[in-house]
Amino acid sequence: MHRTSLSRRSLLKTASMIGAGALPLPLFAAGRKLKVVSIWTGPIDQQWNSRTHVALVAAQKRADIEYTWAESIATADLERVIRQYAQQGVDMIFTEVYSMERQARAIAKAFPKTVFMVGSSLPPQSPNLSIFDDTIEEASYLSGLIAGGLTKTNVIGLVAGYPIPVVNRLMNGFMQGAREVNREAKFLVTFIGTWYDPPKAKEAAFAQIAAKADVVYAERTGAADAAKERKVLAIGGIVDTQPQFPDTVVVSALWHMEPTVERSVKKVRDGTFTGEDYRVYSALKYGGSSLSPYGTFENKVPQELKDLVKKRQEEIRTGKFVVKSDETQPKSTL
């Protein structure tokens, strides 16, 4: 495993590893590891990117794959970089294509022996392009129950990137949970127009806190920093941020990409891969999402509220309770 910056030297190094200029290798040849690359416009440790990276590192440790990655690729360069790796003959490419759906699907058609696993809001494309996303509205709903039960001002802030379907589902799920336990809850919703700009997310949260929000749903990195400075509570998203904010982040709605990675790699190995919607494997019942432990807030969250969260969590897993999947753009209600 190594980091790739896509300089000329690093591209040549990767090409030499898999055979520069060669045609794509047979996907299902026995006795060789799958060659997998992930490609991101943000840093590899950014919340969303890191979930796939961690799952792929685990697959490499199991000896399932040979793995490399490219991070912080300019959006304008993403199409070129994806095409370069496909030309080099990698077996699987994990990436995000929200900004270039049409181009990514054209690349997939041009390289039918390469499997594309893409973060996307559009349907899969047979035979070799599947989609995934952090469809963790169930875990977000559970975290919303806690936010609604802990707010004292009845004002809750939400700081997010863009109002795309998957983000809207997370936020609406969170708001559904908050309203269930607190009918007086009002919301301040801010989209910062970028996936990674911690100072901008922090300023958005500051504005919400100034408007009386005492709990902030920190969907973007930076919002929890504002909550910490203003001594209000925060709810984390995608990764557990309580270790960095032990007195601020109550819980986090976690995303686990392991079920998606394990299933897709196995299908490539078995020769059964086809265009598929993997978003379902982010559900609680598949282990694709969860609510983080209470940790430092174990004794600060009322037992009655924790009992409700536990009850709803089990009902979601068994199908007795369904979190509404709402892709409409959430609006401020204050």
Q: What is the element layout, followed by pairings?
A:
Elements: E1 3-4, H1 8-18, E2 34-39, H2 47-61, E3 65-70, H3 78-88, E4 92-96, H4 101-110, E5 115-119, E6 129-132, H5 137-150, E7 155-160, H6 165-181, E8 186-191, H7 198-210, E9 215-218, H8 223-230, E10 233-238, E11 249-255, H9 258-270, E12 289-291, H10 303-318
Parallel strand pairs: 1-3, 2-3, 2-4, 4-5, 5-6, 7-8, 7-9, 9-10, 10-11
Antiparallel strand pairs: 11-12
Helix pairs in contact: 5-6, 5-10, 7-8
Number of helices: 10
Strand order of the largest sheet: 1-3-2-4-5-6
State the secondary-structure class: alpha/beta
Residues in helices, as a percent range: 25-40%
Average pLDDT rating:
90
Major beta-sheet overview: 6 strands, parallel
Return the domain count.
2
Keywords:
alpha/beta; 6-stranded mixed β-sheet; 12 strands; disordered N terminus; 2 domains; Rossmann fold; 38% helix; 6-stranded parallel β-sheet; 334 residues; 10 helices
